[in-house]
Amino acid sequence: MIMNQTQINLIKDQQQHAINCKAMTAAQLDLSISEKWFKIWVPKCLGGLEFSLLEGMQLLEELAYYDGGLAWTITLCSGANLFVGFIDPKIGKEIFQNSQVCLGGSGRASGYAEREQGGYRIKGHWKYATGAPHLTHFTANCVITEKGIPVLDENDQQLIYSFFFDRNDVLIHYDWDTFGLECTASHSFSVENLFVKDSRSFVINESKSTWPQLLYQYPFIPLAELTLLVNFIGMYKRFIDLVERYFIVKSQDEVWLKDKGKLYFKRLDKIQDDFNKRRDVIYQLAEQSWSNREKEMDNAIIYNRIAIESRSFVSSIKDHVMQLFPLCGIEAAQREKEMNIVFRNIFTASQHSLLQE
After folding, report:
1. pTM value?
2. Helix 53-66 × helix 220-250 angle, to 10°
3. CA geometry: angle at 186 spanning 184 and 191, to 5°?
4. Superfamily of domain 5-95
5. Digits of tens for pLDDT over the chain (357 positions)?
6. Phi-psi domain of 169 (left: phi exceeds 0; alpha: psi -120 through 50; beta: other)
7. How is domain 218-355 classified at the architecture level of CATH?
8. CA distances in angstroms from 257 to 123, 245, 248, 250, 267, listed in the order given
9. Residue range 303-345, pLDDT digits in tens
10. Residue in 89, 94, 77 with CA at minimum distance from that of residue 33
11. Pick from 30, 182, 287, 345: most CB atoms within 10 A?
């Protein structure tokens, strides 16, 4: 266990409050900032934890086990703070002097950046900026243009750069209204006719990293796949445990145990076994890929396996949750019951495009 019992108690106590207000509570935010959970991928010299890949995965999985909405927010925001490894180091040191700094935004290139002297003139509208109410900076991808015409890269594709904006320069559209992951507050945002200097642009590619740490030499896509996947793993593990607890209570009824219980427990055992095997594979791949990166060995085959295994895992999670949910009675359908909360979080998270087959 990575977290202590006091932290776990606070997380569990605040979960329903965060759902009700559709944003992180002050207590959740204070805990996340004090424990530097938004900075798990930030260098220690900038006030971060500078976790290894496995350390970060384990923390995010544990957070997701106790509160999927909180974990999803920390995952996406810490993932955006990781971009410090690709921006101008001088700028990075300036903005990370703020202990509460938190980046977040969108990966979709739904904006345009017109080249001008010394920078870019930007307009655009982006969806799903997780943690919008507490972000200090917003990140966004833009198509680069010259005289209104998209610039092409060496592969004749539209050239896309990433940018980050100060909170005061964006308009937040409070439009996040979902049946799960409510507290992530993943609202849309927009900018119009905003000029930013060249130093506010960056490219998320290990060949363009501006810091020497191994994390910034690890490709972003497999990192994103693994960190999103451990959210599913944590939530799914919680769901399985809640189902097992429900079955144990129901098994006190000898008629239920005889007619249904033994079959249900056998089905649950198979699902738990499948879960454990898949989880072991994922962590083995993550550990091997990190070790290979340290040795500067080729990882192409492992990255491909991570992509395949992570999507297959999420697909099996959705299937198994749908198999178990109808076995859990009306309790599973009550909105304030934890089983229902976890169910809603899993299927809201499943709408993220990255891990869809």
Report:
1. 0.97
2. 30
3. 150
4. Acyl-CoA dehydrogenase/oxidase, N-terminal domain (1.10.540.10)
5. 799 999 999 999 999 999 999 999 999 999 999 999 999 999 999 999 999 999 999 999 999 999 999 999 999 999 999 999 999 999 999 999 999 999 999 999 999 999 999 999 999 999 999 999 999 999 999 999 999 999 999 999 999 999 999 999 999 999 999 999 999 999 999 999 999 999 999 999 999 999 999 999 999 999 999 999 999 999 999 999 999 999 999 999 999 999 999 999 999 999 999 999 999 999 999 999 999 999 999 999 999 999 999 999 999 999 999 999 999 999 899 999 999 999 999 999 999 999 998
6. alpha
7. Up-down Bundle (1.20)
8. 62, 14, 9, 7, 14
9. 999 999 999 999 999 999 999 999 999 989 999 999 999 999 9
10. 77
11. 345
Q: Which two tokens stand for residue 229?
A: 């996947």
Structure tokens that stand for 322 in this block:
């749908």
Tokens, residue 90: 């001088």
Cβ-based burial of 263 (10 A; exposed 0-12, middle 13-18, buried ≥19): exposed
Structure tokens, 230? 């451990």
Fold of 103-205: Butyryl-CoA Dehydrogenase, subunit A; domain 2 (2.40.110)
What is the CB neighbour count within 10 angstroms for residue 330?
Answer: 7
Residue 288 parent element (H or E):
helix 262-294
**Strand 111-116, strand 119-129: pairing:** antiparallel
Greatest CA separation found in the chain? 78
CB 142 within 8 A of CB 109: yes
For 109, the 3-state DSSP assignment is coil
Q: Which two tokens stand for residue 244?
A: 């097992």
Q: Where are the domains of the chain?
A: 5-95, 103-205, 218-355
Q: How many CA atoms lie within 13 A of 273 on its CB side?
A: 6
74's tokens: 């920390």
CA 84 to CA 66: how far, in whole Å? 28
Question: Which residue bears the tokens 């363009």?
Answer: 208
What is the DSSP track for 255-280?
HHIIIIIHHHHHHHHHHHHHHHHHHH
| Matching residue, tokens 């169910």 | 343
Q: Determine the number of helices (DSSP H) and then strands (DSSP E) in the chain.
A: 10, 9
